[in-house]
Write a structure and sequence with these properties.
- The complex is a heterodimer.
- Chain A is an all-beta fold.
- In chain A, the strands form two sheets. In chain A, strands 2-10-9-4-5-6 form a six-stranded mixed sheet, with no helix packed on it. A four-stranded antiparallel sheet of chain A has the order 1-3-8-7, with no helix packed on it.
- In chain A, strand 7 and strand 8 form a beta hairpin.
- In chain B, about 40% of the residues are buried.
- The chains are: A mainly beta, B mainly beta.
- At the A-B interface, strand 4 and strand 5 of A face strand 5 and strand 10 of B.
């Protein structure tokens, strides 16, 4: 079973700064990697699918890149509403695994 | 507007059973695969199970295989998760989620809390 490892566990940044989140797969998942955002008390929201495609309504400051085993979610300039937990998810095969999450907190 | 509303959560003893429901509205339910994703308190997301549009195809995480059964009633726009032989480690908020053609989850319910404890 493929394991997704996210790093860092916590990222402390200020509004306006650039955030770079990593998701590493234990085996190749091709380009089949998505990213979600979850705020406290809320359901997750799909941000990016298949590595680099923004979901409906997602701002352009969110971008994804990578392939195979190494993927990155970049938030170009953090807005106050972007401080949340971010999860990656693979869809190459069953099971549809999630990573452990990265918390982006206000510095 | 897509809406997914879970119900049926609660407190159950280890070894017990519970059935969750998810009422869907705002979209053509019968044309979407659906999934359950759970989140233990203070923990990350864990995919639990998925079902195809007709209900004839299901997939389960190893952690619940043989104990949980997912089903759907397209005439009622409702998704179900029958949970048997529950364990303490099944304690979580269970979200139903609409699955896209790319096997991602683009709409989520707020979740139903299941607590397994004696």
């Amino acid at each position: 079973e493929i394991v997704l490892t996210q790093s860092p566990a916590t990222l402390s940044l200020s509004p306006g700064e650039r955030a770079t989140l990593s998701c590493r797969a234990s085996q190749s998942v091709s380009s089949y990697l998505a990213w979600y955002q979850q705020k406290p008390g809320q359901a997750p929201r799909l941000l990016i699918y298949d590595t680099s495609n923004r979901a409906t309504g997602i701002p352009a400051r969110f971008s994804g890149s990578g392939s195979g085993t190494d993927f990155t979610l970049t938030i170009s300039s953090l807005e106050p509403e972007d401080f949340a937990v971010y999860y990656c998810q693979k869809r190459d095969n069953w099971p549809l695994t999630f990573g452990g999450g990265t918390k982006v907190e206000i510095k | 507007e897509v809406q997914l509303l879970e119900s049926g959560g609660g407190l159950v003893q280890p070894g017990g059973s519970l059935r969750l429901s998810c009422a869907a509205s705002g979209f053509t339910f019968s044309t979407y695969a659906m999934s359950w994703v759970r989140q233990a308190p203070g923990k990350g997301l864990e995919w639990v199970s998925s079902i195809g549009v007709s209900g004839g195809s299901t997939n389960y995480a190893d952690s619940v295989k043989g104990r949980f059964t997912m089903s759907r009633d397209n005439s009622k726009n409702t998704l179900y998760l029958q949970m048997n032989s529950l364990r303490a480690e099944d304690t979580a908020v269970y979200h139903c989620a609409r699955q896209t053609s790319t096997y991602n989850f683009d709409s989520w319910g707020q979740g139903a809390l299941v607590t397994v404890s004696s």
